[in-house]
Structures are given as structure tokens and as C-alpha cells.
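We store chain and fold; thus.
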Amino acid sequence: MKIDFANLQHQYQLYKNDIDLNIQNVLNKSNYIMGEEISQLEKMLSDFTDAKYSIACSSGTDALLLAMMAMDIQPGDEIITTPFTFIASAETIALMKAVPVFVDIEEETFNIDASKIESAITSKTRVIMPVSLYGQPADMDPINAIAQSNNIKVIIDGAQSFGATYKEKMEVHHSDIYTTSFFPAKPLGCYGDGGAVFTNNEEFAEKIKMMRVHGQNERYHHKYIGMGGRMDTIQAAILLAKLPHYANEIVMRQKVAQQYNMMLKSKVITPTIKADRTSVWAQYTVRVKDRNVVQKSLTEQGIPTAVHYPMPLHQQECFEYLCQGQTSYPFSEKAAKEVISLPMNPFIKDEEIQFISHALGG
């Protein structure tokens, strides 16, 4: 049996008519930058999340930069985040000449441990940036309480979690700014790079809208130092075709995860989703001993896997200047040695899950 990790081609075939028609409409109009599909997508994204403001942009990485630019982050400002995440979370902080301050994760959820944040706050702390790893939000109530009591902001890096909820509300409603990615392999993906910024704060929204077009408040008049952070119109057209199906796909992902949990719980350490939140299951990530042996065995049986992520950020060469390489973040370091992501998409069949389960231990 040959199993597809993300099943993007299958998904395309399902929605092919609408996707192709939307792309052709853009080609016919030749309005490739900031075409009308951008504002249509932003309206649909706001309807989906109930966010007051949704701003499409060029990538999830640029979404984080735009969020920090809107907050006027300055060199030397400190931003608290997790060391167990994709590098963009901390890389963007460094690009702003701010300082990433790492706080270890919860062992069960892989998300930042809210109970350890307070002790990391200093007079230079400006933002807490939790990452909704693998599709599940962090524990936002205590994080927001800490932020409010210390007069600091919250940016959620939701590159993997678009559509997830915390206490029955989308994550934008638990942060000053929420960002996400529409990279093709994300739960809601376009066919190139893309992202979005969400907020209920009008001032932030207006600044972000200007900053994604080089700080312009009118053509060739620049109020801010900005960036080229626009989403291509073709990518918006693709998302317009896919977004109407997304709520159902989230349910399908959750059913796949439930099936995995049932079949794997006695064989590996399966993911934990807290009762007060939902996950969109960007990844289905388990913990195993002897990961290299397990991964090699699965590969030989035609089962693709991935490791998200094999090295915590504080141990990465590019962050040596932070002098945190010898600092211990034990749960992040343990996770980096044990995690392995199995095929996850809405279209995995029960027999494929059974095959993977058998391959992991009979």
C-alpha cells in the first residue's frame, strides 16, 4: 500500500472545477496583484472566524512580521515564545532585531507552558507569542491574564491552527493579533505561499493593511516603513474555492485523528487535546522511542513520515548569539528526540489507518 502524506492532488481533483474556474477568471482579468479576489477572501475569512479585520498577506512568516511591525516592536524588545516550533516563530522576532525569549513546553500538548511564562518577563518584554503547534491552541486564559497584568501584547502564531477553537471561540478572540499560514501543506492551503493576519483592533488592522503595501496610505505616499507583503490574486482565488469546504474538512481531520487514537493508543504515545479546545490536526504527531528505527521501518512499508521538529530553536546555530544553547528546556529537548508525524489529511481511509497501525506494532 502506498499512502499519501497530505493528499493534495486528491483534494484538487475534488474541487478542480471551482479552482480552475477561479484561476481562469484571474487570468482573464490579468489583475494579479490586489485583485478583487483579495477583498472577497478577506470578507470570507472574517465570516469564518468572526474577526473584525482579516488581512491577506504573502506568507505566514510575513504575517508574523506584519503583526510585530503593527505593534512597533523595536530593537532590544523581548518577545516570549516556545523553542519547540518551526523557526519562523523566532526567526521573525530576530529579523525585527528583537530578542526571542524561550519558555519550555507542556509535555502533553507540545505548546508553551503558561505556568512558566511569568518568570521569563522582564522590563523589556513587549509580547507573548504562543504557537498553536500541530493545530491545537495553547492555554490562552492564563496567558492573557499574565499579559494584561504586565501590560504586554499577545500574538498567536497560528500557522498550523486556522479554524481551531479555544473555549468555543476562534483564536483571534483570544489575542491582540492572530496570524496564520496558507502554505500548501497546511490544513487550509493555497498553491504557493500565502498567509493572513486577524485582529479585532482597528488601529492594528489599518497599519497592517498599509504595511503590506510598503507603508502606503495612498499610492506613492508612505506613512510607514513597510514591506511587499501582498497575497497574489491567484492564491486568493484558490482559497476562495477551497474555503467553503474547510469546515467539513476539519471535521474529517478530527475523525481521522480519533481513528488513529483508537488504534494506536496501546502502541505509541498519542496526542493529547485538552477538553476546552479543538485541534485542526495540521499534523498527527506521536512520540516513540528509537525514532530512526521506526521511521525506517515505516518508509520501507510505503508509509511517509516527517519529524516536526528534530532540534529545538535554542540549539540552532543561527541562535548561538542568544547564548542559550546550554540552557535546558527539558520537554522541548525530549520531544525533539521522540516526535514523528504520521500521514494526516481529511481523505485518509480506515484501511490506511489500519495498515499504519499494523506497521507500528501489529
